[in-house]
C-alpha cells in the first residue's frame, strides 16, 4: 500500500503511525549527560562537495571532533569525502537515503530509506554509521523496528541554530550561546536543505567554536558524549 493510499484510507491510523510513534522517541537521545562541560556539534544533510571540506578544515584547525549525519545518496556520490570525514575521527550517522519525510513513508519506504542510507554510508566509509537521525525529527512506528535491526540508536538534538528559515551567521552564534549547556547536542547543517545553509554555517562555525571554548566547553563526537 502506498503512503498516499494509507492517508486516504485511514487518517486516524496514519496519525498513530506518525504522531503516535513519537512516544517511542522517549528512548532516543536528545542530549548528553549534564555532568562535565562537554557538548556535541552535529552536522546534517551532507556531504556537500563545497561546504563539507571547509567544515572539516575549521574543525581540524580547532582540534575538534564532531558527528556528521549524511544523506545516503549524497554519500554515494562523494565517497572520497565520506572517507575523509571518517579518517579525521568524526562519527558518521545515517540521515536516510534521500531525506524523505518519514511522516509520508509507509513501512516499506521507511525500511528502504533507513537501510539504503545505512548501506551507502557503510560502503563509502568502509564502516557502518553509528547513529541515525530522521529528517526534521519526524518518525513513524516502522522506523524503530528498522533501527533495532541495525542496532543503531536514534539521536535527535537539544538545540538548532537554524531551522526551516535562514538565520544569519551572527544570529546562529548567538542562538548557540543562549542554548548551550552541559551535554547539549547542537544541530547544524553543512549542506543545503534550506538554501544557503551550508555557506552560512561555514561563516558561523569559527566564532561558534571560539565562543564554546570561551564558555569552557569541550567538543566531543556522539560516541564519546552519549
Ligand atoms: Zn536534514
Give a structural overview.
With 226 residues, the chain is α/β, with parallel strands linked by helices. Helices cover 45% and strands 12% of the residues. Strands 1, 2, 3, 4, 5, 6 and 7 form a seven-stranded parallel sheet that branches. Strand 3 (91-94), helix 6 and strand 4 form a beta-alpha-beta unit. Helix 5 (79-87) crosses helix 6 and helix 8 packs across helix 9. The model has no long low-confidence stretch (mean pLDDT 94). The structure holds zinc ion (ZN).
Rg value: 17 Å
What does the overall shape look like? Answer: globular
What is the number of helices?
Answer: 10
Tell me what portion of residues adopts beta-strand conformation.
Answer: 5-15%
Summarize the structure.
The protein has helices spanning 3-9, 11-18, 51-61, 72-77, 79-87, 107-125, 141-149, 169-179, 197-214, 222-225; strands at 38-44, 67-70, 91-94, 131-132, 159-160, 185-189, 218-219.
Record the SSE blueprint.
Layout: H1 3-9, H2 11-18, E1 38-44, H3 51-61, E2 67-70, H4 72-77, H5 79-87, E3 91-94, H6 107-125, E4 131-132, H7 141-149, E5 159-160, H8 169-179, E6 185-189, H9 197-214, E7 218-219, H10 222-225
Parallel strand pairs: 1-2, 1-6, 1-7, 2-3, 3-4, 5-6
Helix pairs in contact: 3-9, 5-6, 6-7, 8-9
What structural keywords apply?
226 residues; alpha/beta; 7-stranded parallel β-sheet; 10 helices; 7 strands; 45% helix; binds zinc ion
